[in-house]
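Hey team,

Filing this mostly as a record. A colleague (T.K.) asked me to run one chain through the structure pipeline before their review meeting, and I want the input and output archived in the tracker in case anyone asks later how it was produced. No errors, nothing strange. Just documentation.

Input sequence:
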Amino acid sequence: MPKHILLVDDDDLMRRSLTFGLEQAGYRLSSAENAEDALALSRRDPPDLVLLDIGLPGMDGLDALRHFKAQLGVPVIFLTARRREFDEVLGLELGADDYLTKPVNLDLVTAHVKAVLRRSEPQGSVLPQVSPVVVGDLVLDPTAHTVTIGGRPVELRPREFNLLHTLALQPNAVISTDDLLANVWGAEFIGQPQVVYVHIRWLRQKIEADPDQPRRIITVHGIGYKLTPQGS
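Output structure:
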């Protein structure tokens, strides 16, 4: 299974470039344009490594580093345009595993990612287990990457699985289309709601008794979608 990298940067061009390059190198990428979205995404889909910009809007990278280390304990590589030595020293003292100054070279980033992942690879330990999510008769197991409804297995593509997982973590709560885009596809997809519409339609075809009259995934017009429990 490819290593999962979470890229957090408010530069859209940087996100697109690094996402494409690292995916070509064999990694699975998620991205966010701010620390708050990144932390929410990481709780749903824990990364193996975080590429983290320091100068983020809202919560900055130094504060985000503390949260990533406390909540996930995953390696973090700082990406920053700041050249002050203070930031580098402070970041490493707070627990960052590496530090790269922008503009970055893709080959250099890839080499650092490989090195940090290699250093952080657990020796003789098992992968962490994530508890299944239960919404009525729907059971989603993130560790096994399986979904069952009333005990019947449902085959989902990776994006469909991640979309359902995001909805299942907050049953009965309306999640906006933009939040679904940011959490499932990455911040660079904001403004492309048709991506969500298509995947919701595909998901309904697999989990609804009648996809034309859905009872599980409910549309809240003008806002987004919510997952409602069915069965028991």
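Quick notes for T.K.: The longest strand covers residues 4-8. The chain has two domains: 4-120, 133-227.
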